[in-house]
Amino acid sequence: MSRDLDERALFERFSKKYQLVQSELLKKIERSNCGCDYGSTSFTTVGQVEILDEMLALEPNKRLLEIGAGSGWPGLYLARGSGCNVTLVDLPIEGLQLARERAEQDRLSGSSEMVVASGSALPFHADSFDAISHADVLCCLVEKLEVLKSCREVVNPEGKMVFTVILTTPGLTNSNYQKAVACGPSFIAAEDSYPNLIAAGGWELVEQVDLSDEFFETLQVMLENERFYADDLEALLGKEETQRRLTRTHESIYGLKNGLIRRELFEAVPV
Fold this sequence. Notes:
seven-stranded mixed sheet, 7 strands, globular
């Protein structure tokens, strides 16, 4: 299968997921996994969002851009807590439609907007944003460097970017690297290390935080939930999709347990 077809398949899977995430079953599982019920496609927990908020120094009148925002987690949550203005960007319109509904529910309509766009070609002027965040997005995209460069073009000189990503552990043998790629997200493979990609994108790395232990705990809870609600998940998603979820969770746990993959947080400022 070509890279374009792989990306299209992933896009369609996300689109279908957003049509189901408002079910009470998936909300219940999400609350148990991450402490939220936005229909999230990342692994960001409520506790980690507090770290994001502190790093981004969000406050009223600040402008936050959330890349790959999906149905609004954690961008809308950050806006609600800090009073900042938030722009949510993604391609599957189904997720952004849910985000709009959530913004109305949380009385954020006046301080939020949703834009259908690619993170690698952001349709904004220079200096449009004070802060940028994206959660587990780059590991689902091929154009990692292009996204980082595009973010640099729209942030103001005193701005900041904070993001999480699942990545292969540095220094693996070729055999273990292939195993890591097989048990990670669809596009976990990167052409360079993230510190190097950040620098090439026009950013200076400020802090790098290993979230692998927390990620492992989240996945363990997720696996327990997927097993416990297996019959209900099959009724909602179908047997094939439920098995795919279980397989991917198992693979990710295997990768973490064997030191093949990691989940890390990066804080960067524009150069």
